[in-house]
Write a structure and sequence with these properties.
Strand content: 25-35%
Strand order of the largest sheet: 1-2-3-4
Number of domains: 1
Helix content: 25-40%
Number of helices: 2
Shape: elongated
Number of strands: 4
Order of helices and strands: HHEEEE
Structural class: alpha+beta
Radius of gyration: 32 Å
Length: 161
């Protein structure tokens, strides 16, 4: 029997990786990195959208606070601001030095009187309770998704004690 020489023994021992193994591992790594990049991009878009929603909520809360803090607030005297005469508001002031890049939105205030029947208080009631509904809405176009976003708050007020 012929014993292997040191030269032929070296040919049969595994040392390193084959080209196929390197290409497969590179492909798996590439898929993982692309997935991570996609997640980071989406997280950035969601952060911007969340910032816009927080700003819209701040605008709405500011409007509501003006009326609810005053003890003599007369909700019947709140002027409606409806389309096409909406108030323009800044949702995202990207560069404080210029107004050219601001993301703007539209603020509307809708007031209406509604008579509600408090049937949930017992037997059906024939007495209606006058309520005043104040609805404040902020609309804007989300530039990343090219879609309209809306934030709305309603307040129902009655004169009953």
């Amino acid at each position: 029997m012929h014993s292997p020489t040191p030269c032929t023994a070296r040919l049969h021992t595994p040392r390193g990786f084959t080209l196929v193994e390197v290409l497969v591992s590179a492909a798996v790594l590439l898929v993982g990195v692309l997935g991570l990049v996609a997640v980071l991009v989406k997280a950035g878009e969601l952060e911007v959208s969340d910032r816009h929603r927080r700003r819209a909520r701040e605008l709405i809360d500011s409007c509501m606070e003006q009326w609810t803090v005053m003890p003599t607030c007369d909700f019947d005297s709140i002027p409606p601001i409806l389309p096409p005469s909406c108030t323009t508001v800044v949702i995202d002031d990207r560069d404080p030095n210029t107004d050219a890049d601001d993301l703007t939105g539209w603020l509307t205030i809708d007031t209406s009187s509604v008579n509600l029947y408090p049937d949930d208080l017992g037997p059906p009631s024939v007495v209606s309770v006058p309520y005043r509904r104040v609805r404040i809405t902020v609309n804007w176009v989300n530039p990343a998704a090219a879609q309209h976003d809306t934030m709305m708050m309603e307040k129902w007020v009655t004169d009953l004690q």
